[in-house]
Each structure stands twice: as C-alpha cells, then as structure tokens.
Write a structure and sequence with these properties.
Elements (H helix, E strand, L loop, with lengths): L2 H23 L5 H26 L3 H28 L5 H36 L1
Length: 129
C-alpha cells in the first residue's frame, strides 16, 4: 500500500475507533474535542508526508533523515495545534490532548512500519546482489 494511502487509512481507522469510543461512553460533550483532535491530527500527518516523499527518491540514509524530520514536524504541528485550540479556540485542554494521542501514534506507527518495510526490501536486494 502506498504511504499516503496507508496514512489516510490509519487516520480513518483512528477516527472511527475514537468516535465509537465516544458513542459507547455516551459522552456527547467529547465530540467537540474530538473534532479539534481530528483536524490537528490530519494537518500534522499531512504535513509529515512531504519529507517522506523527499526521502523516498534518495539514499537510505537520507530516507531515515527524512523520517526523523517528518516525526519532528508532526510533533511541532501537533503541539502548536493543541496550543492554538486551547488558547484561541477555548477547547478543553485535557480531552483534546488525550484525543490527539491516538492520531499522533497512528501516524507514527504507519510511518515507522513503512520505513521498516523499505529498509527490509533494500537489505534483501543487497543480499541478492
């Protein structure tokens, strides 16, 4: 599965599971923080895709560097978005922060799994040659 598609699927699954959790808990007050977390998580994940695409067309060392840049960029956008939502949007800090965590980790896991798969394929190609 291409990286962009994997990231989109990860975000959709995370959003679905988070929504199901809110429904099961019967806590309608959590929909507003979830919407903020979804927007922030989507923006952060979308921005982290660009460095990965840059690294895909380069060497393995540059791809690893791009992955680290991508993770840092996602962290900065997530933290900045959380601060903006709390200060500017007057969202409750704890629910938004807690709901951001699954989106952040879904993107991180997707990115790491993609990177590991690429590294394994490069290692196997080197063994064959």
């Amino acid at each position: 599965m291409p990286f962009c598609a994997a990231m989109i699927v990860a975000l959709l699954v995370t959003a679905g599971l988070t929504a199901a959790t809110i429904l099961l808990l019967d806590r309608p007050s959590l929909w507003r923080p979830m919407s903020a977390a979804l927007v922030i998580g989507t923006l952060a994940s979308g921005a982290s895709i660009a460095p990965m695409f840059w690294g895909l067309s380069r060497s393995m060392h540059e791809l690893t560097t791009a992955a680290m840049i991508s993770m840092g960029l996602r962290l900065l956008i997530t933290a900045g978005g959380l601060l903006l939502a709390i200060r500017g949007g007057h969202f409750p800090a704890l629910p938004v922060g807690i709901m951001l965590m699954p989106f952040y980790f879904a993107a991180l896991i997707t990115e790491c799994a993609f990177l590991v798969r690429l590294m394994r394929s490069v290692r196997e190609a080197r063994k064959e040659s």
